[in-house]
Amino acid sequence: MTAARQVKNFIDGEYRESASTFEVPNPATHDLAAIVHEASADDIDDAVAAARRALDGPWSRMSAENRHDLMRKACDLILSRKDEFIAAEIADSGHPIAAVSAIEIPRGAQQLRAFADIASRPSEPETFDTQTPDGRQAYNYSQRVPKGVIAAICPWNLPLIMATWKLAPALAWGNTVVLKPSEETPSTASMLGQVFVDAGFPAGVVNVVNGFGAESAGEFLTCHPGINAINFTGETTTGTAIMQAAAVGIRDVSLELGGKNAAIILDDCNLDAAIAGTAASVFYNSGQICLGTERVYVSRSIYDEFVAGLKRCAEGQVLGDPRSSATTMGPLVSHEHREKVLQCYRQAEAEGAEVVTGGGVPEMEHDFVRGAWIEPTIWIGLPEDGLAVKEEIFGPCCHVVPVDDDDAAIALANDSRYGLAATVWSTDTPRCRRVVEELNAGVCWINGWMIRDLRTPFGGFGESGIGREGGAHAMEFHTELKNICQVMDLP
Ligand code: NAD
After folding, report:
1. Quick check: CB of 182 below 6 Å from ligand 1?
2. Residue of minimum CA distance from atom 23 in ligand 1
3. Rounded to whole angstroms, what are the CA distances from 313 to 82, 208, 272, 316?
């Protein structure tokens, strides 16, 4: 067992200890992974004040070009410390090394470079010639200025990716940030502090504070009057509380919330690809991914074959040491989350589900018996109004339903208060396009899943969120837009 990591708050360019600490267990083993210093209300005051000083001082005096160069340097520094980041991410989250080393740490780093590149591209100037009432000419143009000090609040499901997904656009458009990672997975966000120091960022541009939500660092931060806008990813219920906090002082919010995503498998699809793609979207990250699939609607003629194929994929998952490259599925993030998911498993059975596979806790080998493991699970036969069909579970599970035609599939897929992601599988392009264009979801894939180009818009319909992040769309939230009207032809 390696020694537990000390996770301190990073405020005004230096790491600080707190009087109060809490422990984070390794979800795979339940051994101690990290001892975390919890930020007090005074620490949050200090972090917000440091962010304000940096905003008013060195950060705004620096050219955008120099700011973007620092971001690219931070990206390179994370990659040069990749092994350290991988070890910390696995210890906190239990994610398998294959995904952490190939996707999570590289993308976590590259988001800094990507948004530096996106923000440095010149945007089309918006100009209008206007006539004044007394017949003179006026010239209108727009200016964008940073929003100010941004509070960024992250979930635990993809810790480094979430941290830089919030930081990168904020920094790219000239803001300063106080970031609060999830209390369950704080290590890699905290490690970013040293990266920003080493890259040469002025003190206070990025601050990382640790703690919980209500009555702790999260609430202290979102209620702080020095915060200009709040960028939040997490549960829809938490998003509601955050929106209420933001109402005081009329602060802007960007909310990336829950989902109950549907996959539609049509009878003319490439069945092997549809099965493999759907399995990835259900079981990847043990189902703890906002874009994951929990509802599957399949043309009746291929339904049995599809269910049998998905079952094979579920039963082929390799659960075990996350540090082994043979492992394909890690544990859930915590015992608390496993209890919530198991409650949904019990609920599904109580609602009449037939369990195709899974449904419980797997038997694990010696070192992992205390971990938060759960079986990949497939149900059929649930009523469409059942809780297991309506509510986000955030575990490795899905419900599969046969449908008679495309319109029925569209209607069922859209019958949700969420609208984050959707997937359609068919070899008939016009048919795919017709179906996908009818779906109420912010991110849709045809014949694929989880292909993410950082330049594209990202966000949800309905209770899946407000606003669009991604690419130049993130500029809307991270800047204030000013209209300047100059009257020409003065007498
Ligand atoms: P959560 O809402 O419980 O917590 C998220 C963060 O909010 C944590 O840092 C937590 O400490 C903080 N928080 C909690 N209560 C708060 C309060 N009252 N004030 C301020 N901060 C508070 O979410 P989670 O369990 O960490 O993450 C899972 C959820 O995140 C799922 O619903 C998932 O769908 C969602 N998610 C959405 C996206 C997306 O892009 N739409 C991406 C990833 C995860």
Report:
1. yes
2. 234
3. 30, 39, 11, 5
Question: Which residues carry out catalysis?
Answer: 256, 290
347 Cα: distance to centroid of ligand 1 (angstroms): 23
Read off the amino acid at residue 77.
L
| Multiple choice CATH, 5-257, 1.10.1660.10, 3.30.429.10, 3.40.605.10, 3.40.50.300 | 3.40.605.10
- Alpha carbon separation from 266 to 41, 263, 345, 442, 462 (Å, rounded): 54, 10, 27, 21, 25
Answer whether 119's CB lies under 8 Å from 473's CB: no
The set of residues, in sequence order, having a beta carbon less than 8 Å from that of 262 and lying 6+ positions away, is 293, 295, 296, 297, 412, 413, 416, 422, 423, 439, 441
Ligand 1 pocket residue status of 156, Cβ below 6 Å:
yes
CB count in 10 Å sphere of residue 324: 11
13: left (phi over 0), alpha (psi -120 to 50) or beta: left
The answer for residues whose C-beta is within 8 angstroms of residue 479's C-beta and 6 or more apart is 144, 145, 146, 147, 173, 174
Sign of the torsion formed by the C-alpha atoms of 100, 102, 104 and 108: positive
Going along 219-325, which residue ranges are E strands? 229-233, 252-256, 261-265, 293-299
Topology of the domain comprising 261-457: Aldehyde Dehydrogenase; Chain A, domain 2 (3.40.309)
Task: Tell me how many degrees the CA angle 255-394-184 measures, rounded to the nearest 5.
Answer: 75
pTM of the predicted model, to two decimals? 0.97
Question: Residue 483: which H helix or E strand, with range?
Answer: strand 479-487
Ligand 1 centroid, distance to 300 Cα (angstroms):
37
Domain ranges of the chain: 5-257, 261-457
Ligand 1 atom, smallest distance to 181 CA: 9
Residue whose tokens read 């699939």: 293
Residue closest to 289 by CA, chosen among 329, 324, 317: 329
**pLDDT tens over the chain, length 491 residues:** 567 899 999 999 999 999 999 999 999 999 999 999 999 999 999 999 999 999 999 999 999 999 999 999 999 999 999 999 999 999 999 999 999 999 999 999 999 999 999 999 988 889 999 999 999 999 999 999 999 999 999 999 999 999 999 999 999 999 999 999 999 999 999 999 999 999 999 999 999 999 999 999 999 999 999 999 999 999 999 999 999 999 999 999 999 999 999 999 999 999 999 999 999 999 999 999 999 999 999 999 999 999 999 999 999 999 999 999 999 999 999 999 999 999 999 999 999 999 999 999 999 998 999 999 999 999 999 999 999 999 999 999 999 999 999 999 999 999 999 999 999 999 999 999 999 999 999 999 999 999 999 999 999 999 999 999 999 999 999 999 999 999 997 76
